Amino acid sequence: MTDILPNSLAQVADLALLISAQNKRFLVRLAPDARLETHRGILYHNDLIGLPWGSRVQSHLGSPFVLLQPSLSDLLLETRRNTQIMYPKDIGFILVTMGIGPGLHVVEAGTGSGAFTGALAYMVGPQGHVTSYEVRPEMQRLAQKNLERIGLSDRVTFKLQDILPGFDERNVDALFLDLPGPEDYIAQARQALKPGGFFGSLLPTANQVSRLLIALKRENFAFIDVCEIMLRYYKPVPERFRPTDRMVAHTGFLIFARAVALEDLELSSPAAEEDAGEENADG
Ligand SMILES: C[S@@+](CC[C@H](N)C(=O)[O-])C[C@H]1O[C@@H](n2cnc3c(N)ncnc32)[C@H](O)[C@@H]1O
Prior knowledge:
By secondary structure, the protein is α/β, with parallel strands linked by helices. Helices cover 27% and strands 27% of the residues. The protein folds into two domains: 15-70, Vcp-like ATPase, Chain A, domain 2 (Roll), CATH 3.10.330.20; 73-282, Rossmann fold. The chain contains nine helices and 15 strands. The structure holds S-adenosylmethionine (SAM). Residues 83-86, 109-110, 112-116, 133-136, 139, 162-164, 178-179 line the site of S-adenosylmethionine (SAM).
């Protein structure tokens, strides 16, 4: 496993991001005598190894590049994809809300291209583990390659299995579903989660959310929350500071819940609680 935490100098086996003056990005793993061929000329890894991160470097044709350590967001955007992948704006909020951190065991389905798998593997650290289910072999292979590329595959167990019969794991800290029809797998999720464990899902359309809410309530999940993350970028130009012309308007609804022993209690999240007055007014 390669350390992708910040060091001050680029070293052999580090992941490096090279960005050209035209904003083209290249993610490479630094290796002695290796070379990166770009549309603006060749960069020799030997010239990069030992340089401080943030250095300006140039190709054999004299074209400038900047040498950077990739952030988790940079790594995720580099994911080679065959499915709709999850966006950093959603991933960041999901990780925080579901308490994903070092040493945890997290289960997810489906693996897809592995963008979210990469984020989970990054967050659980070397002591934690991710188990990721997928039914399509070609998707699993792509995700495995993506995880190998960012040096995190040894934190993940990839399972080529349909989750309909259930998960093999028990007492997991958190479980995330990013696949069609998550309402069909809520009893299975409940069995796999530890008491108090976190459930999360992402769904593109509102009617799918309604079906999932019914299933979560049926399986006695508590603290259910539904939200959506809207991210707007601004042009960082002091004299013309304003929003950028375009934004990604909708990626998906995020649904969160916790597996607790409910019996006759109905527990809502603080966000849902704040809205209780309005709900009463709605009848
Ligand atoms: C939207 S993609 C997941 C994308 C992934 N989160 C990412 O960030 O790259 C959904 C995946 O779920 C898989 N899938 C669908 N039904 C499944 C099931 N019952 N069990 C396991 N995987 C399933 C699909 O093959 C597909 O690759």
